[in-house]
Amino acid sequence: MRWRFSTLGSGRPSAKSQYHQGGWQCGFANVGLIMGLWMLATPTWSLVAATDPATPIPVATERSGGNVSLASSLGVRFIPGSSTTLLIDRNGTTFVVDLARQTIQVRASSSATAPGQAIQLASMHSPPQEAPSGAKIFAARCTACHGPEGKGGGAMKTPDFTNPAVQAALPLDAVIKVVREGKPGTAMPAWRESLSDEEIKAVAAFVRSLGQVKKPEGGTSGGEAMQLVKAYEPADDYLFSLPTGRRLDRHGFYLNFTHRFVYTPAFTGPGNLNTMFGLDDFSISSFGLRYGVTDKFYVSAYRSPSLIGRPIELMAAYHFADEHDGNPLNATVRASVDGQSDFRNNFTTNLEMIVSRTVTRHSQLYFVPTLSLQNRELITKPGTLASTQPNLPGINTFSLGAGGVLDIRPTVALVAEVIPTLVNGSELGIHRPAYAFGIQKRVLRHAFTLGFTTSPGTTVSQRAGTRATFVGDPSGDTPSGLFIGFDLMRQIY
Ligand code: HEC
Question: Does residue 422 line the site of ligand 1, with CB under 6 A?
Answer without folding.
Answer: no
